[in-house]
Every structure is written in structure tokens, then in C-alpha cells.
């Protein structure tokens, strides 16, 4: 049987990881994060499709394309977490497990980051654990997918 596919989406400015506010987001790059996710996925027996976009519409199209293709979704919507009803609506139409991840603890930061539209549509949320949050999201999704079998 083919390994289940987990789509890992990253929103705006996450391509700047390593350069962007390292005191908040750390010094690792998006490539480092992809490597960590790929290694974790391999160990779990799942495959990943890891992507980043600065464009809201592109993220929405990728969420729509997950239908019938991906077994689970991990998404760090970045700034769109706090603004995008449209991204939330797109995620809400999926019938696969969805985990929202933030590198930083959004509840410890400015009040405008405390609310995430995407959290309304996500099954679980991990924040404040840096890159490890993605690892944990992959482990959780792989557990959920195994339980569902
Ligand atoms: C972020 C938190 C958001 O508030 C911010 O806009 C980001 C990154 C995080 O991973 O901590 O771009 O999603």
C-alpha cells in the first residue's frame, strides 16, 4: 500500500526563516525545516508534500487540491492565521485531519496574534515549540491515520 500523503503548508514570510527575527523564530531555515519534516515522515512511514507561499490565494488553492489527494494537512498559516476567513473556509471543507502549527507561542505575543481564524477549522493546534511543533504534528497525524484504518 502507498504511504499516506501529508500536505505541509507554510504561509507568508516563512521563506525568510533564519533571517527573520531569529530571536523569535530561531536560526534554522525553511530548508532545514523541510529536512526535519522529511526525516520524521520517513521514520513514520508517511510521505510529505512540503510547500510555502506568500500568496493567500495560492495557499487556498493548495488546500482545495488536498481533497482526494492528501490524508492529512499540517499548516502554519503565518500572518493569514489572524486575518483570513477565506483560508479558514477552505480548510473547513476538508474531511481530513488538520493540525495548525505556529513556531512561536502566539498567546504570549501581541494581542492581534491571539486569535486565529484557522483554529476554528483545525482539529489540533501546536504553538511555541519551534521546529519540534512540526515533528509533533506529523507524529499526531500519523497516529490519527493509523487509528482510522
Ligand atoms: C507564526 C506566528 C504568526 O503570528 C506570524 O504572523 C508568523 C509566524 C509562527 O509560526 O509563530 O508569520 O505563524
Query: What separation lies between the terminal Cα atoms?
Result: 12 Å
Strand content: 15-25%
What ligands are attached or bound here?
1,3,4-trihydroxy-5-OXO-cyclohexanecarboxylic acid
CATH fourth-tier homologous superfamily: Dehydroquinase, class II
Give the CATH level 1 class.
Answer: Alpha Beta
Note the run of SSEs as H and E: EHHEHEHEEH
DSSP helical segment count? 5
What would you say this structure looks like, in words?
With 149 residues, this protein is an alpha/beta fold. It has one domain: 3-Layer(aba) Sandwich (Rossmann fold), CATH 3.40.50.9100. 36% of the residues lie in helices and 17% in strands. The protein is built from five helices and five strands. It has a five-stranded parallel beta sheet with strand order 2-1-3-4-5, with helices on both faces. α4 links the parallel β3 and β4. α2 packs parallel to α5 and α3 packs parallel to α4. It is globular, with a radius of gyration of 14 Å. The site of 1,3,4-trihydroxy-5-OXO-cyclohexanecarboxylic acid has 10 residues, from loops.
Amino acid at each position: 500500500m502507498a504511504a499516506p500523503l501529508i500536505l505541509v503548508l507554510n504561509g507568508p514570510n516563512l521563506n525568510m526563516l533564519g533571517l527573520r527575527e531569529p530571536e523569535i523564530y530561531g536560526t534554522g531555515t525553511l530548508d532545514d525545516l523541510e529536512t526535519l519534516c522529511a526525516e520524521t515522515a520517513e521514520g513514520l512511514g508517511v510521505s510529505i508534500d512540503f510547500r510555502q507561499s506568500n500568496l493567500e490565494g495560492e495557499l487556498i488553492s493548495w488546500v482545495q487540491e488536498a481533497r482526494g489527494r492528501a490524508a492529512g494537512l499540517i499548516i502554519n498559516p503565518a500572518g493569514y492565521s489572524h486575518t483570513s476567513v477565506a483560508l479558514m473556509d477552505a480548510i473547513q471543507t476538508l474531511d481530513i485531519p488538520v493540525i495548525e502549527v505556529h513556531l512561536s507561542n502566539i498567546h504570549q505575543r501581541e494581542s492581534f496574534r491571539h486569535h486565529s481564524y484557522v483554529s476554528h477549522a483545525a482539529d489540533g493546534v501546536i504553538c511555541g515549540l519551534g521546529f519540534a511543533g512540526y515533528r509533533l504534528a506529523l507524529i499526531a497525524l500519523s497516529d490519527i491515520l493509523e487509528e482510522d484504518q
